[in-house]
Amino acid sequence: MSQTPDAPSSSSTLRAIAQIFRLLGWSSFWIQLALGVVSGVILLANSLFGRNIGSTNNAGTGFGVLLEVCGLLALGGGIYLAYRYTRIGNQLQSSNPSNRPRKSETVQVLRLGLWVNLAGILLTLLGAQAIVGSFTLRALSQGQLIFSAQANQAIISGLDMFVVLANIQTLQAHFAGLLASLWLLNRINRL
């Protein structure tokens, strides 16, 4: 952070903060990327090989998947911000104080990370509610909980449950990004 009144004076403190930014940035980046790819592959496989999730009897599921895709798009922003944390960590180690970001700029990026991950969590939770609600209504409308009377056909298939799994993976990814942003913001605000 540049040598302004809101910047730390100790170079050892600055190095420690830079290392934390890089460590948490890379950890958050890879966790979010891995979980996001898993969610994306699950949703893609379900749309290619699964039932028609946008059909009229699955309107809630289709809307839930749309919200899940929006949550994945927000996760893309979270992944970018996690990468940006690593760049901030590198800039903090610069020997030229004018190349270091100011504390206020760093806090602004961290707050943006918080909001992006919170928005992603909200979208994904709303999608999960729509999907699980649709599955519950589908099961209850058949009068039996798991299997229909017609040839023991599953009312809720394994492919349906993959959509729920994709939601959980996306929620975990946003939670990892949220934790990293909160931890870094807490560390910056202690200065």
TrEMBL record:
Keywords: Membrane, Transmembrane, Transmembrane helix
Residues that span the membrane, as ranges: 29-49, 61-83, 109-132, 162-185
UniProt key word Ligase: no
Stated name of the protein: DUF3611 family protein
